[in-house]
Each structure stands twice: as C-alpha cells, then as structure tokens.
Amino acid sequence: MTKIIHKNSAEFTHSFSARKGKVYLVGCGLGDVEQLTLKAYRIIREAQIVLYDHLITDEILALIPQESRKIYVGKPQKSHTISQDRINALIVDYASQGYSVARLKSGDPYIFGRGAEEALYLGERGYEVEVVAGISSSISGPACAGIPPTARGYASSFSVVSAHLKEDKFNSDWLALLKIPNHTTVVLMGLGLASIIRREALKAGVPKTFPVAIVSNASRPEQESIVTTLDGLTKAAKTLEGPAVIIFGDVVKLHGKLPEFVSQAVEIR
After folding, report:
1. Could you tell me which CATH number the domain at 10-132 has?
2. C-alpha gyration radius of the chain
3. pLDDT, position 265
4. What positions carry a catalytic annotation?
C-alpha cells in the first residue's frame, strides 16, 4: 500500500456517496480469455453495467451475465462513432444511479488506453474508481510470436511507444530510440502508419537492414507474424490486419527459436 505523507490535493478530498456506484476500469489483455486476471474475470461476472471497446473479443463478452447491461463504446481507428466525452457521461450516468460499472478496455487501461483520463474525470466528480491492470500488447504481443522484449545478448532495455498522437498526427519523437544499442522498441497503433515509419526512420539514419517484426491479432485464432527489415516494413504491413504491434531490434532474430502462442478452445464457466 502506498502512503502519501503530503497534504491531499483538492481532487482527492471527495467523500464518496453511498448512493453512487463503483466504477472499474478493467484491462482485458489481448483477447485470449485465459489471459484475464482473476480479478478482471470476477468484475466482468459481477458488474451490473458493462461498457466495452471494439477490441474486446466475443469469448470475453460471453462471460458477461445475461442480466447485466452491455453497451458498446468502441472507437475503431478513423471511425469514432462515440466521443470520449460521451463515454465519460455514460459512465457517470449509470454510476450516479448506484450501479456498479465495468469499463472493459483492451490491454492495460493505462498503456495508451485513456484510462488515466477516465479515472481523473470520475475522481474529480466524486466517484470511486478502481483500475484493474491487464496484460499489455506491448509485452504479450511480442511474446505470443516468440519474441522476448529483452534477452541477454540481444536487448537489455525496451521502450513502448505510440505511432500517432492526438488527431492521428504521426509521432516521430521515438525514432531516436532505434539507434540505442541493445534496445527493443515496441510500437503500438502503427500498422496503418508503416510507410511513414519506414520513410522517417530511414531519414533518421536507421539502416535498411534493421530487424523488424509485426504481430497481428496476438493471442487470437487469427494471429499472424511477419519478420522483415525496416526496408520491407511497408510491404509486410500491407499483408496484415490490426490490431498489431511492431517490434524493432535484434530480439526479432529469436523468432522461430522460442515457443509461440497456440490458440486452444477453452470452456470457462
């Protein structure tokens, strides 16, 4: 338990009303139902209201009891049918009525999942929030393809970055990481920007032969992976569909030498 010894700031001085329902921001991992934490499983089974993203798999949604209300709030890339403000308002609406609300998010809520924004929004309005960590695709994605983010002799550190910023602007700040020796860079939300990544990385002086791997739909039956180089990144990306992670670094050379994820049918009650 973390102890805060300084005075509480204003946003943490709310007294929670007994009439307000508790909100859970639940990380659901990559989609494989067996990779849910026990806590995530319990909350999905117990929550009265469940709001879920477009990357939540059918097998995870099947865990939600029939009597619970399911609300789709997915925001696929370039097709945001519901705004973040609307999602926040929905959560508040149900929690204010005393319902327990589970907000299901792919991966981990705090790894490019806007979980921090939602937690701040709710906390500032006096709602009790609990964040349930999930396995991030930045770690589990490479592992599913037999690529370890770190390995002795290959990489002693790794970074996780997003390829795009707000309003789908390209994020180029991370390209310098590709020049760090013995380092792995895992790029999320970069499949559709592969040609730009290739072009800008080459401009930055990264060699054409730099090892790259793409893993799409990790932990799902349709999982695919391609090992290539920076020069071949654009061509490889065109053959895959998202969600996907892109891995840069010498650890890519271990692909095919280490175990990979194998999808199996599982009945969970």
Report:
1. 3.40.1010.10
2. 20
3. 45
4. 53, 75
Residue 141: pLDDT band (50, 70, 90) is very high
Which residues, 6+ apart, have CB-to-CB distance to 145 below 8 Å?
213, 215, 218, 223, 225, 255, 260, 261
And the tokens for 4? Answer: 């805060």
For the beta carbon of residue 239, count every other beta carbon within 10 angstroms: 10
Domains of the chain by residue range = 10-132, 137-254
Cis peptide bond N-terminal to 243, omega within 30? yes
Q: Which tokens belong to 250?
A: 């010498």
In this structure, whether the domain defined by 137-254 belongs to CATH 3.40.50.360 is answered with no
Hey, what are 266's tokens? Answer: 């599982």
Enter the pTM of the model: 0.86
- In tens, the pLDDT along 3-33 reads 434 333 334 344 444 578 999 999 999 999 9
